[in-house]
């Protein structure tokens, strides 16, 4: 990350900025995300979502991050579904503001999260899924050390239909 770009755990006070980012990126994100209710784009919805995700952060099963550039929220990254015991696994999800796409911010943030997951959280593996045609996200994952390990038919309901996803993983300990 650079001096002007940072990744940090979201706070309840970020709800307005997150709602504004979702509104600003509604069309940009629509092909890659589930269909959202109108309320999703409000500060109240985002505030409640942040509080819920911070509860998972407190118990160690999730970590909700905001990506900030020049003080503005320009992306969201989540390590979620963390399972301990013999699995030591997390799922990664992310998006970057359309105005900032293609600048390497997603790759830098994913690499920072990989380092944190290995060095601070002691995880063994992170997995991520992308739509088959989401070449940009696949490039981010591959540049960050992930490898494709499969394809899941009808994996998630995205943009209103069940869609196939390529599955990626990175092993953090040898």
UniProtKB/TrEMBL annotation:
InterPro entries (alphabetical): Acyl_CoA_acyltransferase, GNAT_dom, N-acetyltransferase
Gene3D superfamilies, alphabetized: 3.40.630.30
Domain of life: Bacteria
Any single Gene Ontology cellular-component annotation: cytoplasm
UniProtKB keywords: Acyltransferase, Transferase
Alphabetized GO MF terms: protein-N-terminal-alanine acetyltransferase activity
Record has Glycoprotein as a keyword: no
Domain N-acetyltransferase: 5-173
PROSITE patterns assigned to the protein according to its UniProt record, in alphabetical order: GNAT
Protein family membership: Belongs to the acetyltransferase family. RimJ subfamily.
Protein name in UniProt: Acetyltransferase
Organism, scientific name: Arthrobacter alpinus
């Amino acid at each position: 990350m650079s001096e002007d770009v940072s990744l940090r755990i979201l706070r309840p006070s970020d709800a307005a900025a997150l709602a504004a980012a979702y509104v600003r990126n509604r069309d940009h994100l629509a092909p890659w995300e589930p269909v959202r209710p109108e309320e999703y784009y409000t500060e109240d919805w985002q505030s409640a979502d942040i509080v819920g995700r911070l509860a998972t952060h407190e118990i160690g099963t999730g970590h909700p991050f905001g990506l900030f550039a020049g003080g503005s929220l320009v992306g969201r990254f989540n390590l979620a579904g963390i399972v301990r015991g013999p699995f030591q696994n997390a799922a990664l999800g992310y998006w970057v503001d359309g105005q900032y796409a293609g600048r390497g911010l997603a790759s830098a943030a994913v690499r920072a999260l990989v380092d944190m997951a290995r060095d601070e959280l002691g995880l063994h593996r992170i997995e991520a899924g992308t739509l088959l045609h989401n070449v940009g996200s696949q490039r981010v994952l591959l540049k960050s050390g992930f490898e494709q390990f499969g394809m899941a038919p009808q994996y998630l309901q995205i943009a209103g239909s069940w869609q196939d996803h390529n599955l990626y993983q990175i092993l953090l300990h040898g």
